[in-house]
Amino acid sequence: MLRDKNLIPLSRQHQHALALCVRIDRASPICDSDLEAWQAEIAQQFDTEIGFHFAAEERVLFPAARKFADLNPLLDELFADHAALRQYFQKSEARQMSAHDLTSFARTMSAHIRKEERQLFERLQELMTQEAFATVGRDLENALKDSVEMCSVPAETTKLRSTKSG
Predict the structure, then answer these.
(1) How far apart are CA 54 and CA 46, in angstroms?
(2) What is the DSSP string of 111-159?
């Protein structure tokens, strides 16, 4: 289903986070000497984009979705995902993640994003009126105004490298 224009800012940020997850997955197993660079990148992405993204969803999108009772179990899962992901972000900020934590973070983040895109966003597009979506869109725009719209350039250590040989 084509994404409603009012959800596109969230979907664009999802793409940025998924790109990070793909790079972590492809770099695995991550050696101990690279952990610092990966954690710095994860912490930066949270500070510049994902933290604002979570707040916007929790203050704007999720309350709007709560108006539809059948979405409440999914919303409870998404809130729980945010809490678990925040723990990973705190560990990255404190530089306390192991290679296993990085892999687990990437899997958790990827699954969370796919759940939002494939279940929540799709269902909201079926249930919400255009007027309600327009209000949500304006509120999301305001909530996301301080986030940095970026697809960050990876550090040399965290850059995705080609697997093709010569």
Answers:
(1) 9
(2) HHHHHIIIIIIHHHHHHS-HHHHHHHHHHHHHHTTTS----PPPPGGGS
Q: Please tell me the predicted confidence (pLDDT) of residue 147.
A: 84
Q: Is 109 exposed, middle or buried (0-12, 13-18, 19+ CB in 10 A)?
A: buried
- Using left for φ > 0, alpha for ψ between -120 and 50, and beta otherwise, residue 121 falls in alpha
For 9-45, how does the pLDDT look when each residue is reduced to its tens digit (9 = 90+)? 999 999 999 999 999 999 999 999 999 999 999 999 9
Cα–Cα distance measured from residue 156 to residue 81, given in angstroms and rounded to the nearest whole number: 30
The structural domains of the chain, ordered by start, are 8-146 (1.20.120)
Neighbours of 75 (CB within 10 A): 18
Question: How many CB atoms neighbour CB 148 within 10 A?
Answer: 11
